[in-house]
Amino acid sequence: MTDLLRLQDIKVYFRSRAGLFKTVEVKAVDGVSLSLGRGETLALVGESGCGKTTLARTSLRLIRPTSGRIIFDGADITHLPESELKWFRRKAQAIFQDPYSSIDPFMTVKQILEEPLILHKIGSREERMEMIARALEDVKLTPVEEFMGKYPHMLSGGQRQRVVIARALILRPEYIAADEPVSMIDASSRAEILYLMKELQERYGVGFLYITHDIATARHFSDRIAVMYLGKIVEMAEPRELIENPLHPYTQALIEAVPEPDPNNRFRERKVIPGEPPSPINPPPGCKFHPRCPYVMDRCRTEEPQLQEIKKGHLVACHLY
Ligand SMILES: Nc1ncnc2c1ncn2[C@@H]1O[C@H](COP(=O)(O)OP(=O)(O)OP(=O)(O)O)[C@@H](O)[C@H]1O
Ligand SMILES: [Mg+2]
Q1: What are phi and psi of 184, to 5 degrees?
Q2: Is the model's pLDDT at 3 over the cut of 70?
Q3: Residue 141 is part of a domain; what is its CATH number?
């Protein structure tokens, strides 16, 4: 069976202004290859600025990569013009971090959910109403009649994100990229929304890219975890294997930085990973993690390690192995 989504050696470089006459190159994504199976959930974790959002946007063809290829359902969509992407726009959906800015404040919930159906010319009026009601039931915004008439400002952050989830699912997509879908939601409803997404993802067999800072939630909500550092995937494995047996020093540091659950300490601070936070402008030569790596060797400063399978299903890019 073909993969749902295949990214082949994707590079996304931006030109960014650095002073009046100067621009610098930002290597936001710098050679990522990965594939997502149908109905699979892949978590992408890594620190701020490592390129997660850029990679997700590229996978949705909201950005054209500088180089590399995007293969969806066996079709190369890397350079297709927007006019030939309509089928893809229906099959691939996004859930972004901020439910406030991703829905129109002047539209009712019903209008928000009906918009994609009208855009893709799906169903009669009555059929669309049934689909909207079903979508609201799916995300547990009931009674549905009550929610249909509401405007976004009448909803809580969590309810708004449920509307965003319903809108993403209403077209029965094959692929959803969810970029930190709960990070801006009240901490008390995060788990509930993650469980809801997981349930719907399984029910409808959606391939899911779940982006998060948080390796602890990635463990519960994914079939595989990919760890990203400065535009590269440095390690990839099934969650249990990755967390119990992390091979890359960066993954080890990420796991150590997860605070221990402590019911008495409400202000658990995330520990920080030692060393300078990385910059995608002038990244270091060799292994990009070497300036922060406790195990750095000579060759790490010059030679970039390639991602390779060390054990079945466990890939790592590190000269230690
Ligand atoms: N349009 C752009 N122009 C210039 N630089 C950009 C652009 N978009 C992203 N970048 C830079 O590319 C790098 C990767 O950004 P990206 O948003 O993909 O990271 P991220 O992993 O999603 O971070 P976060 O966890 O903070 O959301 C950052 O250094 C960012 O400043
Ligand atoms: Mg981001």
Answers
A1: -100, 10
A2: yes
A3: 3.40.50.300
Q: Is the peptide bond before 143 cis (omega within 30 degrees of 0)?
A: yes
Q: What is the C-alpha to C-alpha distance for residues 177 and 55, in angstroms, rounded to an integer?
A: 10
74, 255 contact by CB (below 8 A): no
Please give the tally of structural domains in the chain.
Answer: 1
Give pLDDT tens digits for 31-50. 999 999 999 999 999 998 99
Query: Model pTM?
Result: 0.92
Ligand 1, CB within 6 Å, residue ranges: 14, 16, 26, 28, 46, 48-54, 213, 280
> How far, in Å, are 11, 102, 187, 203, 238 from residue 184 at the CA level?
28, 12, 8, 25, 27
Task: Print the domain residue range for 281.
Answer: 5-258+268-289
End-to-end C-alpha distance for the chain, whole angstroms: 31
Distance (angstroms) between ligand 2 centre and the Cα of 251 equals: 18
